[in-house]
TrEMBL record:
It holds the Pfam family BNR_2. Gene3D superfamilies: 2.120.10.10. Residues 226-247 are annotated as: Disordered. It comes from Sphaerotilus hippei. This is Putative neuraminidase. InterPro entries: Sialidase, Sialidase_sf.
Length: 404
């Protein structure tokens, strides 16, 4: 289905287009975009009945170059005992197309493993799935980055449950996996001070080839966080808050051909939340759940440890740009607005109304391609150009200045 996007939001002008991808089931979530070797735009996401259930698996669709219809979804993962989530497409330098995703038991992200498949024909056929990284409790959301020496940097976040409790994101942090042999073996590089900072998104910095930036979702639902590396990702500074609010939902940042950074996100923090969920998976149960309860829906534990904040509205879906390596984000367009209700993940009864988990990609023609979850029912694709965002009056959508 193709629509002129001006019908969705008054910010959008004639010529901006919206394409809704075919639904892969009751629920669709967590899109990621990439350009295939033949010029097609590809999208992967996870779908099934509801996140955390064992029928959740990875789906793949493509938008052939010059067309306006996404192909019927093809299922790329098949573990009937695990919920398979957060897929990523990665074009490796040798021409292979990689699929990375997670696989967990029910709502226990601390049981997740990172798996992969590869394709040598642009996603038409795939080799057998395998575990990519050793260990469990590992999650991915953003694609690997290839360093100038050919090494791969894969950002990962670690999911750990507090003692005696089920996983709820309260002890998550970030780490970088480094491979010098195209993903056959991995070393780790720590990210100091990254507690609560997840979905690490690495992009090139502006101060030379070894300068890297990273941006993070916040488990505390306060701000998007940012840090830097000056040695190609071997060491990292501690993440610091930016002026952009975050709701404990995913973001994505890319470096544009113009040199600007572009970010898609929900620029709203927990101070706007009217309710609070106990956990992302508080609506589902499994045999493992009897052994450990969920934490209380509160800001901290008795010993003062901060707890993840779930339930902040996931809307609007905003596209923002920065000219100063992500220190400020004065340019913004809202792609779609709504109340962003996410106190439930239930798609079957259409209780969820979030606009979330975006992916942004710049195609060869310079167009900005954005895909995101719409009400957890399907993936929406918006195409626009950089100038449309950059010409917005500078004071129209400025985030609240950072004062803390």
């Amino acid at each position: 289905m193709t629509r002129i996007a001006q019908g969705l939001h008054p910010d959008l002008r004639p010529g901006q287009t919206v394409l809704d991808l075919p639904a892969s089931g009751v629920q669709s979530h967590a899109a990621n975009l990439a350009t295939l070797p033949d010029g097609s735009l590809a999208c992967v996401w996870f779908g099934g009945t509801q996140e955390g259930l064992s029928d959740i698996c990875v789906w793949f669709s493509r938008l052939p170059a010059g067309t306006s219809t996404w192909t019927a979804p093809v299922r790329l993962s098949h573990d009937d005992g695990r919920s398979e989530q957060n897929p990523i497409l990665f074009n490796a330098p040798d021409g292979r197309l990689w699929l990375l995703h997670t696989a967990q038991r029910a709502g226990h992200q601390d049981t997740a493993v990172v798996r992969c498949r590869t394709s040598t024909d642009g996603g038409l056929s795939w080799d057998a799935p395998r575990d990519l990284l050793p260990g469990s409790g590992l999650f991915v959301r953003q694609p690997p980055v290839v360093r100038r020496d050919g090494a791969w940097l894969l950002p990962v976040f670690r999911c750990r449950a507090l003692p005696g409790l089920r996983w709820s994101g309260d002890d998550d942090d970030s780490i970088v996996y480094l491979s010098h042999d195209q993903g056959r073996s991995w070393q780790t590089r720590e990210v100091p001070g990254s507690s609560g900072c997840v979905h690490m998104n690495i992009v090139p910095g502006s101060a030379g080839p070894d300068h890297l930036l990273a941006f993070y979702r916040s488990r505390w639902a306060d701000r998007v966080h940012r840090n830097e590396s000056t040695d190609g990702g071997e060491t990292w500074s501690a993440p610091q808050p930016t002026p952009v609010p975050n709701n404990n939902s995913s973001i994505q940042v890319i470096r544009l051909a113009s040199g600007r950074l572009a970010m898609v996100c929900n620029p709203v923090g927990a101070e706007h939340a009217q309710e609070r969920r106990v956990s992302l998976y508080d609506e589902i149960e499994s045999e493992d759940d009897a052994a450990a309860p969920l934490p209380e829906a509160s800001a901290s534990t008795a010993d003062g440890r901060r707890l993840a904040f779930w339930g902040t509205p996931r809307a609007p879906m905003a596209l923002m740009m920065s000219d100063d390596d992500g220190r400020s984000w004065p340019m913004r367009r809202d792609l779609e607005c709504g109340d962003g209700y996410c106190m439930s993940n239930n798609s079957a009864e259409q209780r969820n109304r979030e606009l979330s988990y975006p992916s942004i990609h710049q195609s060869a023609d310079g167009q900005l391609q954005v895909a995101y979850t719409r009400h957890r029912q399907h993936i929406r694709h918006v195409r626009c150009d950089e100038a449309w965002v950059a010409t917005l009056p500078a004071d129209a959508h400025l985030p609240t200045p950072l004062t803390d």
